[in-house]
């Protein structure tokens, strides 16, 4: 029975680490969030912190996973059950991301690292991308069938465009902090509207 309690405590501590690290990176930025600083923020040594993760890279991947879980919980409509919900929820997340450049930097760095098949971020980004595309493509196809989005565009390609514009905008934001990422996404949605609307 003591083992179950220890296991539950370990899960709770891991969750505390991820939520605290998320806040530290959002506040201090990617470079301001060393493993040492993250460990201190949760009252652990560096070795104690890394006891909960296989590596620093896995820690950072899990921070992004936690960010996505929180974003989807806070903006459930972004999952895309309906076109208006998809658009509004997605724009809310994009606007929020503009306020946390440290997390945007972490995302773009790990996205680049995902090019390496051995990097821990590879599986995360592959799974994340496929999941977003599947959900968004289904919503786009339904909107096309209802005449709310331009017909003749493959819904999967349209979903990829949404993702590509968002990911590219995050990279641009790091160089041009004044960039209005939401305006880019809104423009893409407008371009997908049927002619005459």
Automatic annotation (TrEMBL):
The record places domain HTH tetR-type at 11-71
- Please name the GO terms that the record assigns under molecular function: DNA binding
Pfam families recorded: TetR_N
The answer to whether the entry has keyword Membrane is no
Q: Which keywords describe this protein according to UniProt? A: DNA-binding, Transcription, Transcription regulation
From the UniProt record, list the coiled-coil ranges. none
Q: Which residues bind DNA?
A: 34-53
Q: Does the keyword DNA-binding apply?
A: yes
Q: What is this protein called?
A: HTH-type transcriptional regulator RutR
Organism of provenance: Microbacterium azadirachtae
């Amino acid at each position: 029975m003591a083992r179950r309690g220890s296991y539950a405590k370990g899960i709770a501590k891991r969750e505390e680490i991820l939520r605290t690290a998320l806040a530290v990176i959002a506040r201090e930025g990617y470079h301001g969030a060393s493993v040492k600083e993250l460990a201190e923020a949760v009252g652990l040594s560096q070795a104690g912190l890394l006891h909960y993760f296989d590596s620093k890279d896995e820690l950072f991947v899990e921070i992004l996973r936690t960010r996505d879980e929180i974003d989807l919980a806070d903006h459930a409509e972004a999952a895309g059950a309906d076109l208006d919900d998809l658009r509004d929820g997605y724009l809310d997340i994009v606007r929020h991301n503009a306020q946390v450049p440290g997390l945007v930097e972490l995302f773009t760095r790990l996205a680049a690292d995902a090019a390496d098949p051995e990097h821990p971020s590879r599986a995360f980004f592959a799974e994340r991308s496929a999941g977003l595309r599947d959900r968004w493509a289904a919503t786009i196809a339904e909107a096309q069938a209802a005449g709310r989005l331009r017909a003749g565009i493959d819904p999967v390609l349209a979903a990829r465009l949404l993702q590509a514009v968002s990911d590219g905008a995050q990279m641009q934001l790091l160089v041009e902090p004044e960039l209005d990422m939401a305006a880019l996404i809104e423009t893409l949605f407008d371009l997908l509207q049927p002619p005459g609307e």
